[in-house]
């Protein structure tokens, strides 16, 4: 039976915290996993191996055993999702500077054979409850803005809010997920007690609707052309829609040049809109960011 275990910490118990723990328990149960902190050396080694497999980096895994060991000793977050005794997902975060009252969630991944079971959702809700138990009010992380499933997960399923577009943030990564593409990232902030976050973690996600936005006068700032490539539009709308390719991973393998065109087009559109004062407020399952100006 899925469950959250070992959620203990220094935070005072309150109604929001109770609901956070209950939501984490429910998510783990629905995913059919147990989610808990990981500190044992052998289990930390399993985290390293899982990440190496996901990212295709056996010789240079995204996290090392020594670093994970140091993180846990220093009180940072390493969480694992287990199906029986088998680790099927993991999430790692470390604290910001003390004055910032935030945790940076650096990396999370789920084994390929459990994709679609919402194990990632269970991990993030465990991380949220863990952070709240320690009096932390916000978690931040980055993701590739071209990966539509991650955009939907982060902005809709979790109700995190975009804060900054970061061009080529990590430099060349050269793994099976990123290829030799630039590592642009969108930084999001997850305000753990925000009503929208509370609702999303309870299963009441609020996706955007491209059809509704277009009916209300939204402008297509970046669309998909007949050839499958990016098609620039207007950037002067009160509400703008910025499309991403349906399957960027497959596109990187099949047509790296076209994938790079998408990288540059999305970078230019989102950066220009945000620099002009607009905010990314949502994402539609069809693969569009909704970007809105409060003032023109």
UniProtKB/TrEMBL annotation:
Stated name of the protein: GNAT family N-acetyltransferase
Domain of life assignment: Bacteria
Organism field: Nocardioides hankookensis
InterPro entries xrefs: Acyl_CoA_acyltransferase (IPR016181), GNAT_N_AcTrfase_prd (IPR038764)
């Amino acid at each position: 039976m899925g469950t959250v275990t070992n959620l203990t910490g220094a935070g005072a118990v309150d109604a929001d915290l109770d609901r956070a723990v209950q939501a984490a328990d429910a998510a783990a149960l629905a995913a059919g996993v147990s989610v808990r902190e990981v500190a044992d050396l052998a289990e930390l080694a399993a985290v390293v191996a899982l990440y190496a497999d996901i990212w295709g980096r056996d010789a240079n895994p995204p996290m090392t055993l020594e670093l994970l060991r140091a993180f846990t000793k220093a009180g940072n977050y390493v969480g694992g999702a287990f199906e029986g005794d088998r680790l099927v997902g993991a999430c790692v975060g470390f604290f910001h500077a003390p004055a910032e009252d935030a945790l940076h969630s650096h990396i999370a991944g789920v084994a390929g054979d459990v994709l679609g079971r919402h194990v990632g959702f269970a991990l993030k809700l465990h991380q949220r409850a863990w952070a709240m138990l320690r009096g932390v009010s916000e978690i931040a992380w980055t993701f590739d803005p071209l990966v539509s499933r991650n955009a939907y997960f982060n902005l809709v399923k979790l109700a995190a809010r975009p804060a900054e577009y970061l061009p080529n943030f990590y430099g060349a990564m050269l793994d099976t997920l990123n290829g030799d593409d630039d590592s642009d990232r969108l930084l999001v902030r997850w305000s753990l007690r925000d009503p929208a976050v509370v609702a999303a973690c309870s299963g009441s996600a609020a996706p955007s609707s491209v059809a509704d936005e277009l009916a209300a006068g939204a402008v297509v700032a970046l669309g998909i052309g007949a050839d499958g490539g990016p098609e620039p539009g207007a950037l002067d709308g009160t509400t703008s829609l910025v499309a991403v390719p349906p399957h960027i991973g497959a596109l990187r393998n099949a047509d790296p040049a076209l994938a790079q065109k998408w990288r540059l087009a999305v970078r230019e559109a989102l950066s220009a809109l945000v620099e002009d004062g607009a905010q990314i407020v949502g994402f539609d399952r069809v693969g569009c960011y909704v970007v809105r100006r409060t003032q023109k």
